[in-house]
Amino acid sequence: MNVLEINCLALAYLGDSIYESYIREYLIKKGISHVKDLQELSLNYVTAKSQARILKELLTKKVLTSSEIDLIKRARNTKVNSHPKNCDIITYHEATAFEALFGYLKLKNDRERLEEIINQILID
């Protein structure tokens, strides 16, 4: 299977769950145990606005490889039929690209790279 041939929205679909799982694990390992607190704190990472902001930071810090940037550009330009009412279409495209990166790395079985990127995001 050539991961680059997979629809970017499908990669984003998978990447959303992968990324959110990392965030949930991170917050629980920090000792947060109340579900309400976990939900509120996770919003700093998992909303479309947060993901778009984080993607911009990763790009600014030059954390991503050229092939990852190419994938992000392709995913960002993928046509979507709708987007959430709580964010604009540009933010939604950025968040979709961010999630697609996680789906791409997961399907490549590149756990080491996934964790490198997560560690860059979760630097306190």
Show the helix and strand layout.
Layout: H1 8-29, H2 35-46, H3 48-60, H4 66-76, H5 89-107, H6 111-121
Q: What would you call the shape? A: globular
What number is the mean pLDDT? 93
Low-confidence stretches: none
Structural class: mainly alpha
What is the straight-line distance between the termini? 37 Å
Query: Into which percentage range does the β-strand content fall?
Result: under 5%
**Count of DSSP helices?**
6
Instruction: State the domain count.
Output: 1
CATH superfamily, please?
A: Ribonuclease III domain
Helix content: over 70%
Total count of strands: 0
CATH architecture: Orthogonal Bundle
The gyration radius over C-alpha positions equals 14 Å
The major sheet is characterized as: none
**CATH class (first level) name:** Mainly Alpha
Say what the CATH topology is. Answer: Ribonuclease iii, N-terminal Endonuclease Domain, Chain A
Oligomer: single chain
Structure description:
The protein is 71% helix and 0% strand. It is globular. The chain has a single domain, classed as Ribonuclease III domain (Ribonuclease iii, N-terminal Endonuclease Domain, Chain A, Orthogonal Bundle), CATH 1.10.1520.10. α1 (8-29) crosses α5, α2 packs across α3 and α4 (66-76) crosses α5. It has helices at 8-29, 35-46, 48-60, 66-76, 89-107, 111-121. By secondary structure, it is an all-alpha fold. It has six helices and no strands.
